[in-house]
């Protein structure tokens, strides 16, 4: 049996007045998901957990079968793992966003989804000028980077995508050693504001990356291995370091696909091709798509509908067709959380999932692939998100 999970990050949403009080999932043209849905079992799952951050870190950790209450150490630790950063006992990793601020307000948590090439040069400068024996900066992808420092485990920090348009100083880190982080963030403005990369970005009408934002701190991540728990060899495919870091910590092979961006312009076809190729040798693939989440954060209704349609056309359809070459397979489609357009951030309500089994097709009596329809009519529910993976694999 081959197993594949297609995870559309933040795809679930709430009804939106401007599209007839429907969700983007209901409005989007999704013939492939509709077809699979009619032959699948479906239900609702709550990937996020009370008392923990409402983030993709917790959501993906949960969907991959790990109880976040037991294993969660912080978002940045997952990303650090994927970047090959070995955290020592007394070290804490922080997510380091390149952001755009103006007039004291957070204008863009991603600096216009700055390119990895541009970002790498800026982070290298930050490390050279602001790094020390106790503080180090590591480049990641696009706007997502890592800072490692000694101590700081009791700091409370806010995600930049949660404070769009707000005065950011009110959300500066708090707690022991928070003054160190605040100073680094403020000092970064002096280094980045007039940098030639930002001069060029402004000339091209793009948001500059004129400050770093530190958050998502965590200690070293240690997780049970998928092979030890289920006897399966697996792989993960994602443009997002935290997802790859979770997979790596579970013993999954991280497959790097050229041209992936974590945005709506990502290399969907490459992800599909690499996933199907991996399944020739592997038993399990976790294929993560970030574009749906980014459109939710942007508050872009049309963009989110388009992202869902691209997911259906470029990923779901080709994957379903490609899986048919295997004698037996199971396919699950779900989200790690909702990212409603109205909230522009993650929320903790349950999200829909559906599971297709090639050897046991199911007649689904629910007519419409929709958050509300599944919530109202399906009796299959997982209030603990980490219980979904064993159900998917074993049942």
Q: Spatial order of the strands in the main sheet?
A: 9-8-10-1-11-12-2-13
How can the largest sheet be summarized? 8 strands, mixed
By DSSP (H or I, 4+ residues per run), the number of helices equals: 15
Please tell me what the overall shape is: globular
Q: Which structural category fits the helices and strands?
A: alpha/beta
Strands, total number: 13
What gyration radius follows from the Cα positions, in whole Å? Answer: 21 Å
End-to-end separation in angstroms reads 12 Å
Low-confidence stretches: none
Question: Could you write a compact summary of the structure shown?
Answer:
By secondary structure, the chain is of the alpha/beta class.
Q: Can you walk through the features of this model?
A:
The protein is an alpha/beta fold and 395 residues long. 35% of the residues lie in helices and 19% in strands. It has 15 helices and 13 strands. The protein has helices at residues 24-27, 31-37, 56-63, 68-71, 75-82, 116-130, 178-192, 196-203, 226-230, 241-249, 268-278, 291-298, 301-323, 371-377, 388-394; strands at residues 2-8, 41-45, 91-102, 105-108, 135-141, 144-150, 211-218, 234-237, 253-254, 284-289, 329-334, 351-357, 381-382. The mean pLDDT is 96. The strands form two sheets. An eight-stranded mixed β-sheet has the order 9-8-10-1-11-12-2-13, with helices on both faces.
Features:
35% helix, 395 residues, eight-stranded mixed β-sheet, five-stranded antiparallel β-sheet, single chain, 13 strands, alpha/beta
Topology readout:
Layout: E1 2-8, H1 24-27, H2 31-37, E2 41-45, H3 56-63, H4 68-71, H5 75-82, E3 91-102, E4 105-108, H6 116-130, E5 135-141, E6 144-150, H7 178-192, H8 196-203, E7 211-218, H9 226-230, E8 234-237, H10 241-249, E9 253-254, H11 268-278, E10 284-289, H12 291-298, H13 301-323, E11 329-334, E12 351-357, H14 371-377, E13 381-382, H15 388-394
Helix pairs in contact: 2-13, 5-10, 6-7, 11-13, 12-13
């Amino acid at each position: 049996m081959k197993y594949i999970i297609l995870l559309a990050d933040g795809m679930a949403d709430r009804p939106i007045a401007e599209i007839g009080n429907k969700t983007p999932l209901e409005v989007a043209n999704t013939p492939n998901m509709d077809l699979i849905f009619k032959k699948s079992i479906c239900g609702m799952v709550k990937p996020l957990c009370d008392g923990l951050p409402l983030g993709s870190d917790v959501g993906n950790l949960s969907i991959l079968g790990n109880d976040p209450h037991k294993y969660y150490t912080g978002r940045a630790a997952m990303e650090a793992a994927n970047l090959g950063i070995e955290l020592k006992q007394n070290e804490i990793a922080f997510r380091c966003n390149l952001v755009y601020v103006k007039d004291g307000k957070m204008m863009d948590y991603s600096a216009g989804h700055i390119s990895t090439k541009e970002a790498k040069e800026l982070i290298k400068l930050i490390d050279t000028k602001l790094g020390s024996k106790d503080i180090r900066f590591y480049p990641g992808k696009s706007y997502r980077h890592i800072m490692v420092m000694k101590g700081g485990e009791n700091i409370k920090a806010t995600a930049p995508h949660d404070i769009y348009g707000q005065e950011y100083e009110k959300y500066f880190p708090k707690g022991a050693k928070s003054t160190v982080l605040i100073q680094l963030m403020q000092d970064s403005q002096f280094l980045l504001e007039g940098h030639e990369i930002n001069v060029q970005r402004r000339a091209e009408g793009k948001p500059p990356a004129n400050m770093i934002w530190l958050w998502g701190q965590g200690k070293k991540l240690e997780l049970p291995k998928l092979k030890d728990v289920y006897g399966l060899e697996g792989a993960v495919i994602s443009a997002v370091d935290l997802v790859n870091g979770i997979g790596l910590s579970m013993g999954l092979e991280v497959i790097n696909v050229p041209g992936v961006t974590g945005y709506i312009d990502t290399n969907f076809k490459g992800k599909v091709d690499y996933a199907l190729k991996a399944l020739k040798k592997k038993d399990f693939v976790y294929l993560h798509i970030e574009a749906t989440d980014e459109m939710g954060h942007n508050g872009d209704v049309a963009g989110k509908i388009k992202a869902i349609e691209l997911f259906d056309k470029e990923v779901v359809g080709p994957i379903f067709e490609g899986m048919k070459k295997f004698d037996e397979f199971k396919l699950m489609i779900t989200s790690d959380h909702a990212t409603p357009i109205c909230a522009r951030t993650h929320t903790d309500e349950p999200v829909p999932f559906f599971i297709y089994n090639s050897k046991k097709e199911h007649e689904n009596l629910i007519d419409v692939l929709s958050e509300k329809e599944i919530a109202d009519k399906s009796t299959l529910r997982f209030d603990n998100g980490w219980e979904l993976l064993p159900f998917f694999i074993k049942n």
